[in-house]
UniProtKB/TrEMBL annotation:
Residues 439-764 form the Cobalamin-independent methionine synthase MetE C-terminal/archaeal domain. One of its GO terms (molecular function) is 5-methyltetrahydropteroyltriglutamate-homocysteine S-methyltransferase activity. One of its GO terms (biological process) is methionine biosynthetic process. This is 5-methyltetrahydropteroyltriglutamate--homocysteine S-methyltransferase. Belongs to the vitamin-B12 independent methionine synthase family. HAMAP family: Meth_synth. Keywords: Amino-acid biosynthesis, Metal-binding, Methionine biosynthesis, Methyltransferase, Transferase, Zinc. Catalyzes the transfer of a methyl group from 5-methyltetrahydrofolate to homocysteine resulting in methionine formation. InterPro entries: Cbl-indep_Met_Synth_N, Cobalamin-indep_Met_synthase, Met_Synth_C/arc, UROD/MetE-like_sf. It comes from the Eukaryota. L-homocysteine binds at residues 444-446, 612. Residues 4-319 form the Cobalamin-independent methionine synthase MetE N-terminal domain.
Length: 770
């Protein structure tokens, strides 16, 4: 009998209960017991939802108060000693690692966060060292299982696998070898997993889901022998537990050659993201009795699943396995944590549009329907028919392409991607036109998003003030921002972005082709959630989006006013893309809309524009062999958006901290006149990558951040001067711009004024002394 399962569920609660409770706890408004009560209610509520949708196997242990990787670090005692010795309660020690702790004489910074594979979720990096003593610091995975079992659920505990956990980690400051191969600690960690598995078995678990997404990475191949020894250890020590080994977000490719011989009872593959890789896996397992869990329903998008198509895949697999339906499970491709909670919370979308979507709750229903259809088609016939109608309606809608947009993309010529002259020529023209001093100073775009700005926006959205009143308010804000920058003596000014709720949502709302949710919250990290716009049709720009504001801002000053746009790749990567056409095509459509905007800015007299691409790096596919095709369209899209203007236009781009070591050529290939990067905390690592021995052929002008915008701390003039000095040494005086790490929207005016005053003073000195 084919069973259905989901690999994990959003943690936020249907009405953001968990987020609210967390924030209340952090600001001392509620006690720990109240927070834990809300968490428990939400866990049980999740199980109820999954079960009521008809899913057979319910995952436990995927709920977390911050991050599931941090949960496992905590469980296995991967706790840096400063936190372990802090004297805080276990809960507060956990939160101290997650977000830092500055209270009652304890001063601990947050641990490092990194992006979770190719998603916009962030995990906390396990900090490992040679003498770390792995042990069970708590029994959360067992407790969660027992809680669900006692409430009557047939649960399958979920663990992150030991190889993936170590691989995700880094050498801590306590490590003797800073380049420690973290997976080398496996021999010490595996026995602690055994202990945990024994406890789960004793508590009554028969199956355990163990996530090893590292198997979808090129690195996975390195660990064949570690996989063998570890999973053989588990099977021999805890034979009563059946392991479902799970992979997601990509293809296992050749790794299946050793995975197939592991003593596991089940293997899960992400069919949705790599449909063509399925056959290889099925053949590898054909002569075994391993259960294959088919991730047919996407855990990453919001589109209704084409159940007929999925069912066909499942039936083919069953046939290839000699008609043994019991060897197939139907599942979500990954945890549903990357999708919003339920479409039931959407009141503003039209019935037509809402019918295209499935959020986490509805995806549970899809998984259950597929399994039911596989078991006994008659029990699912009605549901399949309803689904077929929805899919057809969506397909019919998709046929309405915007032919003007499609034709324009098809007509893109290679020269459309190139500026008129090479950088060396542009640079001379621009320095004259922009009249810039040596070491020009600028900022990254946003200035404080004050309470007042947010409250006026809310009032406007509620209809309490009209358009004219709101725009007047924004103009006053801009005028204030301009005056403050002039007083500081900055060279290239910005308008401050007061009109933007979010750097992607703002553009999505002004472009045709996007839809927005009221409650489509997706976890970014901890209690931080975003509501990605959804690309539903061809994207075009009905009218200029930012020209009015940039032009107004420019009218207030003789200094250069920099236009401010979000780049095509970032708009796409931070949205839910459509499923029927390639990301390449979607990104080019957005790029053309932005290209028109850049040209309109130039016509309006703007001579500098910044096109932010902070999400370029995270869109990289998991497998290096797929990188080229992604980077080609990503780079082309950026160039397309920026290249429509004359040589006089200074085009900048901006990246927040990303490890560009392995794809720096793509950043150079953007051919932006200037790029700014987050730098102040990265020990020059990033800086060196951007310059290094490729200094001359590499990047054009560069503005490595000289102070940390995440912190209220004012980096003193001397400290910023030292930074500038080092930057000039590494990059060369002529290429350097001076700016902060990123936008200043999360700072107060008092903080950022002091920070920028110090930056300007340090620059003055650098101009004289360097
Ligand atoms: N222009 C944006 C800002 O200053 C850039 C934000 C980002 O890089 N994440 O806020
Ligand atoms: Zn940034």
């Amino acid at each position: 009998m084919a069973a259905s399962s989901v690999l994990g569920f959003p943690r936020i609660g249907p009405q953001r209960e968990v987020k609210k409770a967390l924030e209340a706890y952090w600001s001392d408004k509620i006690q720990a017991d109240e927070l834990l009560k809300v968490a428990k209610q939400q866990r049980l509520h999740t199980y109820e939802i999954i079960k009521s949708q008809g899913v057979d196997v319910i995952p436990t242990g995927t709920f977390t108060l911050y991050d599931h990787i941090l949960d496992f670090s905590n469980t296995f005692n991967i706790i840096p000693s400063a936190y372990a010795k802090s004297g805080l309660s276990p809960l507060d020690t956990f939160f101290a690692m997650a977000r830092g702790h500055q209270k009652g004489g304890v001063d601990l910074p947050a641990n490092e966060m990194r992006k979770w594979f190719n998603s916009n979720y962030h995990y906390l990096v396990p900090e490992l060292h040679e003498s770390l003593e792995f042990k069970l610091n708590n029994t959360k995975p067992v407790d969660d299982f027992v809680e669900a079992k006692e409430a009557g659920y047939n649960a399958r505990p979920v663990l992150v696998g030991p190889i993936t956990l170590l691989w995700l980690g880094k050498a801590s400051r306590e490590a003797k070898n800073p380049n420690l191969d973290t997976v080398s600690l496996l021999e010490k960690l595996a026995p602690v997993y055994v202990e945990l598995l024994k406890k789960l078995a004793a508590a009554g678990a028969d199956w355990v889901q163990i996530d090893e997404p590292v198997l979808c990475m090129d690195d996975g191949a390195k660990y064949a022998s570690q996989f063998k020894s570890t999973y053989e250890l588990f099977a021999s020590q805890v034979p009563e537990i059946k392991t479902l080994l799970t992979t997601y977000f990509g293809r296992v490719d050749d790794n299946v050659n050793f995975v197939k011989d592991l003593p596991i009872a089940g293997f899960h593959v992400d069919v949705y993201s790599a449909p063509n890789a399925l056959n290889n896996v099925v053949s590898a397992f054909a002569n075994k009795d391993t259960v294959l869990s088919l991730g047919l329903v996407s855990g990453r998008n919001i589109w209704k699943n084409d159940l007929a198509a999925s069912l066909k895949i499942a039936k083919d697999v069953v046939a290839q396995l000699g008609n043994k339906a019991e060897r197939v499970q139907i599942a979500t491709s990954s945890s549903l944590l990357h999708t919003p909670y339920t479409i039931k919370n959407e009141k503003k979308l039209s019935a037509e549009v809402l019918d295209w979507f499935s959020f986490a709750t509805e995806k549970c229903g899809e998984v259950a329907t597929l399994a039911a259809a596989l078991r006994d088609p008659s029990t699912a016939a009605d549901r399949l028919e309803v689904n077929e109608r929805s899919i057809k309606a969506r397909r019919d809608f998709e046929k309405n392409s915007n032919s003007a947009v499609r034709d324009r993309v098809a007509a893109i010529k290679p020269e459309d991607l190139n500026r008129k002259s090479p950088f060396a020529v542009r640079r001379e023209v621009q320095r004259k036109r922009l009249n810039l001093p040596a070491l020009p100073t600028t900022t990254i775009g946003s200035f404080p998003q004050t309470k007042e700005i947010r409250s006026q926006r809310a009032r406007f959205n509620k209809g309490e003030i009209d358009q004219a009143q709101y725009e007047k308010f924004l103009e006053n804000e801009i005028a204030d921002v301009v005056k403050r920058q002039e007083a500081l003596g900055l060279d290239v000014l910005v308008h401050g972005e007061p009109e933007r709720n979010d750097m992607v949502q703002y553009f999505g709302e002004l472009l045709d082709g996007f839809e927005f949710t009221q409650n489509g919250w997706v976890q970014s990290f901890g209690s931080r959630y975003v509501r990605p716009p959804i690309v539903v049709s061809d994207v075009s720009r009905p009218q200029p989006m930012t020209v009015r504001w940039s032009q107004y801002a420019q009218s207030l000053t003789k200094k250069v006013m920099k236009g401010m746009l979000t780049g095509p790749v970032t708009i796409l990567n931070w949205s839910f893309p459509r499923d029927d056409i390639s990301r390449d095509l979607q990104s080019k459509q957005i790029a053309l809309a932005l290209r028109d905007e850049v040209c309109d800015l130039e016509k309006a007299g703007i001579v500098s524009v910044q096109i932010d691409e902070p999400a370029l790096r995270e869109g990289l596919p998991l497998r290096k062999s797929d990188w080229d095709s992604y980077l080609t369209w990503a780079v082309d899209s950026f160039r397309l958006s920026a290249a429509g203007v004359s040589d006089e236009m200074n085009t900048a781009s901006h990246f927040c901290y990303s490890s560009f070591e392995d794809c720096i050529a793509a950043v150079f290939a953007l051919d932006a006149d200037m790029i700014s990067i987050e730098n102040s905390k990265s020990d020059e690592k990033l800086l060196k990558v951007f310059t290094g021995d490729k200094k001359d052929e590499g990047v054009n002008d560069i503005g490595p951040g000289v102070f940390d915008i995440h912190s209220p701390r004012v980096a003193p003039e001397q400290e910023q001067f030292e930074k500038i000095k080092r930057i000039v040494e590494v990059v060369g005086f002529d290429k350097v711009w001076i700016n902060p790490d990123c936008g200043l929207k999360t700072r107060t005016w008092e903080e950022c004024t002091a920070q920028l005053e110090a930056m300007m003073a340090a620059t003055q000195r650098a101009r004289k002394e360097l």
